Amino acid sequence: MFYTVGEMAKLVGVAPSTLRYYDKEGLLPFVERSKGGIRVFKESDYEWLKVIECLKKTGMQLKDIRTFIFMAMEGDSTIGKRLELITNQRKAVLRRIDELQETLATLDFKKWYYETAKAHGTTEVPKNMPYEELPEEFREIRKRLRGI
Amino acid sequence: MFYTVGEMAKLVGVAPSTLRYYDKEGLLPFVERSKGGIRVFKESDYEWLKVIECLKKTGMQLKDIRTFIFMAMEGDSTIGKRLELITNQRKAVLRRIDELQETLATLDFKKWYYETAKAHGTTEVPKNMPYEELPEEFREIRKRLRGI
DNA sequence: TATTGACTTAAAGTCGGGTTTAAGTTGTAC
DNA sequence: GTACAACTTAAACCCGACTTTAAGTCAATA
Q1: Strand ranges of the sheet holding A32-33, from the earlier edge strand across to the other edge
Q2: Is residue A80, in this structure, part of any structural domain at all?
Q3: Which pLDDT score, from 0 to 100, does residue B104 have?
Q4: Exposure winner among A8, A9, A62, A89, fewest CB in 10 A?
């Protein structure tokens, strides 16, 4: 079965202009053309687009996804490099999750801060609450955030 | 103690141009000027910049940070709105962490996939590995990823 | 007072990831 | 054979978050 750019865009849930843009950026070297120059997407191209979607979700940049696609098209000789790329991306995602966990702790504190402020009608209450009265989970974080 | 834009930039670890940009975008309504028009940062402004840094880490956009700053400067009457903003941002961070956990699972699978491919010299081995031989933690994910 | 380094502004440039526009072409249906 | 929707391209535009540039000003030191 074959698809036009508009049909395939619907299948993968992006705008046709996005697929044309990816093509222009060299991310779709596998897409063929009709005699008239119109893009003809095959079933297997859908799988490639899923690969792109997956790598994009990891936060990978288009130029790196392009590199990955070219390596994958080259075959087994590039397995080592592909593994390296995936490993690096995995590390980047782990780091990002860590950062966000830190950030979440800060937001939890701020949420408590404003809930307490709201209950008392003033930020003075959470701001000046003595260390002993402060919920335990916020004692450390308030030190870090002093004045914030 | 007072600081110029360059000094304060060093203190908070950003480029002076960044602070000027934030000022232009209205994020620094608290910064005063000398008679000659030069920005004069106070100690307390450092705390505001730390607030901005913190909110930025949560992924909040500059225009929303600006809104937050203005509300915070207005005083206790805006506590409810600030709580709402923080709560929404907290939810956004939770969603983002969830997405990244999903993504991490995919990358773990791909890592195993290429490690196995590397060990055998071909992607055919992990690609066609029978369900029974597949490590348990990857059985579900391979179904979702079939062909990827 | 003159120099010098750091400041000022507006405007333009950069980057990533697209979207929109304009002018023209393809392919299908009648 | 003509109409029409959907395709083609290059180029321009958009967004957020800056950075860079250019031309000019301030303020501390010699």
Answers
A1: A2-3, A39-42, A32-33
A2: no
A3: 92
A4: A62
Q: Which residue has the tokens 């979702």?
A: B144
Chain-centroid distance, C-alpha A64: 14
- Look at residue A62 and tell me if it is in a domain: yes
Query: Closest to A117 (Cβ–Cβ): which among B58, B79, B89?
Result: B79
Write out the residue range of the structural domain in which residue B139 sits.
98-146
User: Taking CB atoms and an 8 Å cutoff, what residues of chain B touch A109?
Assistant: none
Token pair belonging to A32? 């063929």
- The reported pTM is 0.86
Rounded CA gap, A115 and A133, in Å? 15
Residue B61 CA distance to nucleotide C20 C1' (Å): 25
Helical segments of chain B, H only: 5-12, 16-24, 43-57, 62-74, 79-120, 124-128, 136-145
pLDDT score of A148 more than 80: no
Instruction: Indicate whether B8 belongs to any domain.
Output: yes
CB contact under 8 A, A148 and B47: yes
Strand C bases within 7 angstroms of protein beta carbons: 6-10, 16-21, 25-27
Q: Which of A42, A74, A106 lies at the terminal end of a domain, its last residue?
A: A74
